[in-house]
Amino acid sequence: MSQLQKGDVLDVQVNKAGKGVVVEALHKGQVAGSITSSIIQRLAECVEKGYEYVAEVIDVQGGACRIHVHLK
After folding, report:
1. pLDDT in tens, 14-41
2. pTM for the complete prediction?
3. Which three-class secondary structure state does DSSP give residue 40?
Protein backbone atom coordinates (compact mmCIF):
# COMPACT_ATOMS: atom_id res chain seq x y z
CA MET A 1 0.00 0.00 0.00
CA SER A 2 1.26 3.47 -0.80
CA GLN A 3 2.19 5.98 1.89
CA LEU A 4 -0.59 8.13 3.33
CA GLN A 5 -0.20 11.86 2.88
CA LYS A 6 -1.84 14.96 4.29
CA GLY A 7 -5.06 15.61 2.38
CA ASP A 8 -5.78 11.95 1.50
CA VAL A 9 -9.44 11.04 1.99
CA LEU A 10 -10.11 7.57 3.40
CA ASP A 11 -13.35 5.60 3.48
CA VAL A 12 -14.65 4.53 6.91
CA GLN A 13 -16.13 1.10 7.62
CA VAL A 14 -17.16 -0.92 10.65
CA ASN A 15 -16.07 -4.52 11.27
CA LYS A 16 -17.47 -6.56 14.11
CA ALA A 17 -14.80 -8.25 16.20
CA GLY A 18 -16.40 -10.65 18.66
CA LYS A 19 -18.69 -8.58 20.89
CA GLY A 20 -16.92 -5.33 19.98
CA VAL A 21 -16.53 -3.32 16.83
CA VAL A 22 -13.51 -1.96 15.00
CA VAL A 23 -13.83 1.19 12.90
CA GLU A 24 -11.35 1.07 10.04
CA ALA A 25 -10.03 3.62 7.57
CA LEU A 26 -9.57 2.38 4.00
CA HIS A 27 -7.08 3.77 1.50
CA LYS A 28 -7.78 2.71 -2.08
CA GLY A 29 -9.89 -0.19 -0.80
CA GLN A 30 -7.27 -1.54 1.61
CA VAL A 31 -7.30 -1.19 5.39
CA ALA A 32 -4.91 1.63 6.33
CA GLY A 33 -5.59 1.26 10.05
CA SER A 34 -8.17 1.40 12.79
CA ILE A 35 -9.68 4.60 14.12
CA THR A 36 -9.45 5.21 17.86
CA SER A 37 -11.44 7.81 19.74
CA SER A 38 -13.44 8.20 22.91
CA ILE A 39 -16.61 8.28 20.75
CA ILE A 40 -15.79 5.28 18.56
CA GLN A 41 -18.83 3.30 19.72
CA ARG A 42 -21.16 6.16 18.74
CA LEU A 43 -19.45 6.50 15.35
CA ALA A 44 -19.86 2.75 14.77
CA GLU A 45 -23.57 2.97 15.64
CA CYS A 46 -24.06 5.81 13.15
CA VAL A 47 -22.27 3.87 10.38
CA GLU A 48 -24.42 0.81 11.11
CA LYS A 49 -27.53 3.02 10.78
CA GLY A 50 -26.47 3.96 7.25
CA TYR A 51 -24.53 7.19 7.70
CA GLU A 52 -21.42 7.34 5.51
CA TYR A 53 -18.23 8.94 6.76
CA VAL A 54 -14.80 9.71 5.37
CA ALA A 55 -11.57 10.41 7.21
CA GLU A 56 -9.33 13.17 5.91
CA VAL A 57 -5.65 12.84 6.82
CA ILE A 58 -4.45 16.01 8.54
CA ASP A 59 -1.02 14.86 9.78
CA VAL A 60 1.26 11.83 9.37
CA GLN A 61 4.12 11.02 11.74
CA GLY A 62 5.73 7.64 11.31
CA GLY A 63 3.10 4.91 11.63
CA ALA A 64 0.51 7.21 13.19
CA CYS A 65 -1.69 9.74 11.53
CA ARG A 66 -4.27 12.24 12.69
CA ILE A 67 -7.54 12.38 10.82
CA HIS A 68 -10.70 14.43 10.71
CA VAL A 69 -13.81 12.26 10.35
CA HIS A 70 -16.89 13.82 8.76
CA LEU A 71 -20.00 12.87 6.81
CA LYS A 72 -19.39 11.87 3.22
Report:
1. 998 788 889 999 999 999 999 998 889 9
2. 0.86
3. helix
